[in-house]
């Protein structure tokens, strides 16, 4: 008996098994056997088919129909058995079913470094694993990001298990893309399985700033309306949008015509101050990003840089250069100068001034009174003409006069305040300078500048004598100095005993002054009584300007005739500024109103203290010696005394 299985049909069975498809028939046949055998099929030892038929040539065949191949049929044993007697064992032939199997599972294992919700951070490297099982032979794993295949992978094969690890760095463009892991049978490409993971990539905002699309950047003028657009791309979405102008925050301000609208900045009626660098910034959970800087330019007509009226002082015949500076964008193209006095307005010839775009210079020399007046200049550029010209007031000018009536007050052990009365400013704005010297020094210890003639001096040494110089300064120079000499700050520890002795001396002085006052009243009573008895005929008074000269000529005669009268020459005429010193504890007497002693430059001092030592002249904390002072109207006093002469008998 010969038993065989048709190999061509078996191959067909095997190929169908690979696809887990249906198997039509498997043929088994036998021949040349007596008695006639029976042919049957067994699968894994289980009888599944025993129907056979006779074919030509004493061939008996059994065709097995296997309706569907399953994964469970893998390695199944198909046995074709022929038997015709119980006396001998049956003849059989067996085949083992081999199969190509598709993967059963494909799984992407997300990296442990992912954030909440499985998010990935842009520009950070991650390793993602994919595991596939069930394929025979083991599957080959392929990675894709979107439609692009990834190559940076490593694989590990174990039986029918494949482990693949892919390393990649997500970018902000990867947000929302799928990561796909595909496992396929290496022998049959149609036997595959895949899975995908849509990645969520978080990143700081990406910000880009641009000028409104309908605007021309090079054609913006004052008064135009403009807007900026801030394009933001962020995950998670930006929760805050800010605007910057020259690196300073630019807030929403309706009164300033600045408006924030979604991701746009609107500026209405822009001015030259709107020019500069603009940027926008966006903030989310991943950080804050500032956009590119946009340089914004606003063109405007010229305007005077200094503003207001500038005073220019010049003496007759003195040449001065007057510079007219303007702000303009683009630079000024044309300048014009005009001169105006109370009589007429004249255009200045173009050849008398020069211009360089932002400034124009005019050389001007006044020679007569009519040359003093107002000079004005104006400019124009492509935007327009200057609305308000730059104005320069020409005045007759010179050096300022010296400060006068300089006084020390509010004295302490540590400081003293100095105040003066300002003199004539010379026709120009003036400032005031106080210099502090050692009594015998030539270099100033302290320089103090002020807009007003008042200063506070602090930190000077004790028991050191100082000299104070006050001057006024304008563009023509410095005034003559006003000097205050022999200023002394006493040591507080050494001053205690002196204060006590000064207190006793003051009491004695007060008692003496009281006795003198009583004596003066008695003398006055005697004078009145004698005057009633004998009124001498007086000469006709001299004119007021001649009083001082008359007294000066008669001075020796008065001294000889009345030895009890002591002349006072404090009211001498002087051109130098006078200085006075007042005690902080007392208020000085009101100045006399006689013009001879109270004209410009005159001042008052303590009459009873003019002969006191320097220590007492400045009170407790400072002392000074007056260089020049006009304290009393002595001429008027002398004239009064001469009219009311007191006889010696009454004294």
TrEMBL record:
User: One Pfam match, by short name?
Assistant: Ig_3
Q: How does it sit in the membrane?
A: Single-pass membrane protein
Q: Does the keyword Membrane apply?
A: yes
Subcellular location per the Swiss-Prot or TrEMBL entry: Membrane
Location of the region described as Disordered in the Swiss-Prot/TrEMBL record: 577-596
Keywords of this protein's UniProt record, alphabetized?
Answer: Disulfide bond, Membrane, Transmembrane, Transmembrane helix
The main location is: membrane
Q: Where, by residue number, does the polypeptide cross the bilayer?
A: 507-530
- Which terms in the GO cellular component ontology are assigned? membrane
Annotated InterPro entries: CD80_C2-set, FN3_dom, FN3_sf, Ig-like_dom, Ig-like_dom_sf, Ig-like_fold, Ig_sub, Ig_sub2
Q: Which residues form the Fibronectin type-III domain?
A: 402-494
* Domain (Ig-like): residue spans on this chain: 103-192, 204-291, 302-388
The record's listing under SUPFAM superfamilies reads:
Fibronectin type III, Immunoglobulin
Q: What is this protein called?
A: Nephrin-like
Which organism is this protein's natural source? Bombyx mandarina (Wild silk moth)
